[in-house]
Specification:
heterodimer, A: alpha+beta, Rossmann fold, OB fold (Dihydrolipoamide Acetyltransferase, E2P), 2 domains, six-stranded mixed beta sheet, 8 helices, 24% helix, B: mainly alpha, MetI-like fold
Chain lengths: 348, 271
């Protein structure tokens, strides 16, 4: 579903970067297909921003190459990379009008005046800011500033669009609107895009594929469903979404004995004796199911559409469970039984 | 002017001090200039060629000092604001240390350096660049060098502040959008730091107008600026009314420059 053209538009190979003793990027390799939106998801300090800076040319890597459309751009200065970027705080030119801001990259490329006029108008129309040409950035709301930054980043038909946590400063509702808008625009223009965020929900909404980063390495690159349903390791399972993660050993084909002693029926072709991790998403529990858990409610929260329960089960297991909000919210101390089917348990 | 009644009282002691020991003497001094009931002293100050030349001299020196301070101060302030913390600290030491040293001491130091047998001339002659000492002291050049040195911090600090205030992502964004360093400077840095440049220029220019010690010592009586003239009138000619009239002219000129500058300092105008 990811690639439109199929060819790798952006190719990062073995990029490393150290700051003193800190390894910011540890031989990172990834490729982004033409027209694809790839999200780099990770906590702060994971190296995602450094990676973006390397691609944009603001940071020189210690090793490795960055190729766009087959050409090695590692040695080019930012000004000659033809990459559009939306910064965290937009970095609009405060002394220039909206129009002059958007015209800036064209001006730098010595585009003729009528052509500039036409393209600026086009870009502003695309982000629904026609009529705001004469305003200064400080006369705009956060969402409007973001649109200007976006128009400025796409007006010169860049080879690549980079988005550095662009929604962080917006309130929740506006953020959701902008996310969808960016997604629509990106699809319409077929722009190869890298999006940086620490917000896993945002990553799931926007991306074709997600690369989860931690400590300077890529933990997993996969489609959004793959990342959520079949995470590769503890970090990904824990970082993306709510999760119940346990460790254990395959006691027989299709059975895991958890470290606490409880045995679960699972779908897995891992060999008996293998050490494995087990992930159960809170919303995958139901009242019935092959694997039954009886427990006592420690904590219960009403979330409108669902109840979020923390259960203490036999064998010292603690489970996070989401149930559709029907009836009364179970109080702390109440006895609750839940179950989960083997298909809903991910073994890694 | 005061946001609340209680906000006024803490300022009272300082206000009284200024009223009694500053405003009153100034008004009193200005009174001297019109004591005779005529504006004759003003006519003399602004009408006679000799004194007009002094006034012109003063403005010319102030302008040149401002220009040279700007040419030296912008790169220095810019560098200090964008370099590593270590070099920024070094820069601050070298900019601020002179500022904390007495102007008198610094001026005497320049006399030692610039004299006929001063350090500079000896170095130049030993290097064979010149056979005779170049006159650097008791002339226009000497006054200019000394004043630029003394006033440079007043240019560097506002510019440093203005550069520091610019979000580093903004010039980075300009680079990413295809701007060369040259264009980043003229299209981004310059307009965004213009306020600091203006503040520095006004400070240096206004301070130059009334500068006394440095032109008096390095000019050696041959470069007369208005403050030097006023001192001569008070101490040597004992002509207090004329000195008062000259002071009033200086005060008016300073106010005029300040007001003009205020009018032109409009933050971040649109294009």
């Amino acid at each position: 579903m990811a690639a439109r053209g199929g060819s790798a538009e952006l190719l990062i190979e073995g990029v490393g970067k150290r700051f003193g003793d800190v390894v910011a990027l540890d031989h990172v390799s990834l490729s982004v297909a033409q027209g694809e939106l790839l999200t780099i998801l990770g906590p702060s300090g994971s190296g995602k921003t450094t990676l973006l800076k390397v691609v944009a040319g603001f940071e020189t890597p210690d090793g490795g190459t960055v190729k766009v459309g087959g050409t090695d751009i590692s040695a080019l200065p930012p000004a000659r990379r033809d990459i559009g970027m939306v910064f965290q705080n937009y970095a609009l030119f405060p002394h220039l009008s909206v129009k002059a801001n958007v015209a800036f990259p064209l001006e730098m490329r010595n585009v003729a005046k009528p052509e500039t006029e036409r393209r600026v108008a086009e870009a502003l129309a695309m982000v629904e800011l026609a009529g705001y040409e004469a305003r200064l950035p400080k006369q705009l709301s956060g969402g409007q500033q973001q649109r200007v930054a976006l128009a400025r980043a796409i007006v010169f038909n860049p080879r690549l669009l980079l988005l550095d946590e662009p929604f962080g400063a917006l309130d929740r509702k506006l953020r959701e609107t902008m996310q969808l808008e960016v997604r629509r625009l990106q699809r319409r223009l077929g722009l190869t895009t890298i999006f940086i965020t620490h917000d896993q929900e945002e990553a799931l909404v926007l991306s074709d594929r997600i690369a989860v980063m931690n400590k300077g390495t890529i933990q997993q690159i996969a489609t959004t469903t793959e990342i959520y349903e079949r995470p590769a390791n503890d970090f990904v399972a824990d970082f993306v979404g709510e999760s119940n993660i346990f460790h254990g050993t395959m006691s027989a084909p299709g059975a895991v004995t958890l470290d606490g002693g409880r045995t679960l029926v699972v779908r897995s072709d891992r060999q008996a004796g293998a050490k494995v991790g087990v992930l159960m998403r809170p919303e995958r529990f139901a009242s019935g199911g092959t694997n039954q858990f009886a427990g006592e409610v420690i904590e219960s929260v009403y979330l409108g559409t669902s109840f979020k329960l923390r259960l203490a089960c036999e064998g010292g297991l603690e489970l996070l469970v989401r149930q559709p909000a029907r009836g009364a919210l179970p109080a702390a101390g109440a006895k609750v039984a839940v179950g989960i089917d083997p298909e809903a348990i991910h073994v890694f | 002017m005061f946001s609340s009644r209680s906000g006024f009282w803490p300022a009272l002691p300082a206000l009284i001090l200024l009223l009694v020991f500053f405003l009153f003497p100034v008004v009193r001094m200005l009174g001297f200039s019109v004591e005779a009931g005529t504006l004759d002293w003003y006519a003399k100050a602004l009408g006679e060629g000799l004194y007009l030349r002094v006034l012109w001299n003063t403005f010319e020196i102030a302008l040149l000092v401002t220009l040279f301070c700007l040419l030296l101060g912008y790169p220095l302030g810019f560098l200090m604001a964008t370099t590593t913390p270590f070099w920024a600290t070094m820069g601050f030491i070298f900019v601020l240390l002179p500022l904390w040293t007495s102007v008198l001491v610094r001026t005497y130091a320049w006399m030692v350096l610039l004299g006929r047998n001063g350090v500079f001339n000896r170095m130049l002659m030993e290097a064979g660049i010149t056979s005779d000492p170049i006159p650097l002291l008791h002339n226009f050049t000497g006054v200019l060098i000394g004043m630029v040195h003394v006033l440079l911090p007043y240019m560097v600090l506002p510019i440093y502040g203005a550069v520091r205030k610019v979000d580093p992502a903004i010039p980075a964004a300009a680079a990413g959008l295809g701007a060369s360093n040259w264009r980043i400077f003229w299209r981004v840095w310059m307009p965004l730091t213009l306020n600091g440049v203006f503040a520095g220029c006004v400070l240096v220019f206004v301070l130059s107008l009334g500068f006394y010690i440095t032109p008096a010592l390095l000019g050696g009586g041959r470069v007369i600026m208005i403050a030097v003239l006023i001192e001569q009138q008070v101490r040597e000619a004992l002509n207090w009314p004329f000195a008062a009239a000259l002071s009033a002219v200086l005060l008016a000129a300073t106010f005029a420059v300040y007001t003009l500058a205020q009018r032109f300092t409009q933050p971040e105008t649109a294009r």
